[in-house]
Amino acid sequence: MQTMNNFEELQDKWKSQSGLSATENGFESLLKSVKSIERKQKIMNVVLSTTIIVLLFFAIYVSGYKNSIFLLGISLMIGSLIFRIGFELYSLQRSKKLSFINDYNAFKEDLTRYYSFRKIVHYMITPLSILVYVIGFVILLPLFKASLSHGFYIYIVVSSIVLLLIFSVFIYRQIKNELLKLNQLLIRD
Predict the structure, then answer these.
(1) Residues 129 and 67: beta-carbon distance below 8 Å
(2) Is 98 left (phi over 0), alpha (psi -120 to 50) or beta?
(3) What number is the average pLDDT over the span 106-114?
(4) Res 94: pLDDT
(5) Integer Rg of the chain from CA
(6) Is the alpha carbon torsion for 86, 92, 93, 94 positive or negative?
(7) What angle do CA 74, 76, 79 make, to 5 degrees?
(8) Per-residue pLDDT tens for 57-89?
(9) Residues 6+ apart with CB under 8 A from 137
(10) Number of Cβ atoms within 10 Å of the Cβ of 114
């Protein structure tokens, strides 16, 4: 029951702000948009964490820790994912600091800073993470070529390129949708 009172109090404060034509639907829409972005960030962290676990099991399974070149390649791959997860966790922390209780102008300033930060994450950190991940994978290719049949090696190279392209399109769409939602929140007046 306490949560319901807090929500109603928050909603009343939002509605009573001057310079804003607050409606219950507008407030709920705003809240849903922010929560949707947070949910997608959490899902991305789960996917990236799962990938790290798979890479670690692969490294242990093939005893890759015994080969320094393998260790370099797999470390770059895992490190790039950890780096990206770190930024997503920091971003989630920042999104939770967006205060709906603030007056509208203060909220909009916070949201503008958050939007700018997300653009940096998407346009600088994400491509850098992907590049480092790909470099790590390319470092592993000579080892794969030496230890796998020619056909399986070709399969790994081709399927990796296809997966990278599909994954890049998926990431592009996610980024586009998130930034569009944030931009729509900013232009509401």
Answers:
(1) no
(2) beta
(3) 81
(4) 85
(5) 22
(6) positive
(7) 105
(8) 888 887 777 889 999 999 999 999 999 999 889
(9) 73, 77, 160
(10) 20
Tokens 């790039």 locate to 80
DSSP string of the chain?
-HHHHHHHHHHHHHHT-TT----HHHHHHHHHHHHHHHHHHHHHHHHHHHHHHHHHHHHHHTTGGG-HHHHHHHHHHHHHHHHHHHHHHHHHHHHHT--SSS-HHHHHHHHHHHHHHHHHIIIIIHHHHHHHHHHHHHHHHHHHHHHS-HHHHHHHHHHHHHHHHHHHHHHHHHHHHHHHHHHHHHH--
Token pair recorded at residue 82: 């950890």
CB environment 120-134: b (16+ within 10 A), e (fewer): ebbeebbeebbebbe
Integer Cα distance of 96 and 34 in angstroms: 9
Chain-centroid distance of CA 56 in Å reads 21
The per-residue pLDDT for range 11-27, each reduced to its tens digit, is: 555 455 544 444 555 55
- Give the residue, 2 or 154, on which the prediction is more confident: 154
The model's pTM = 0.74
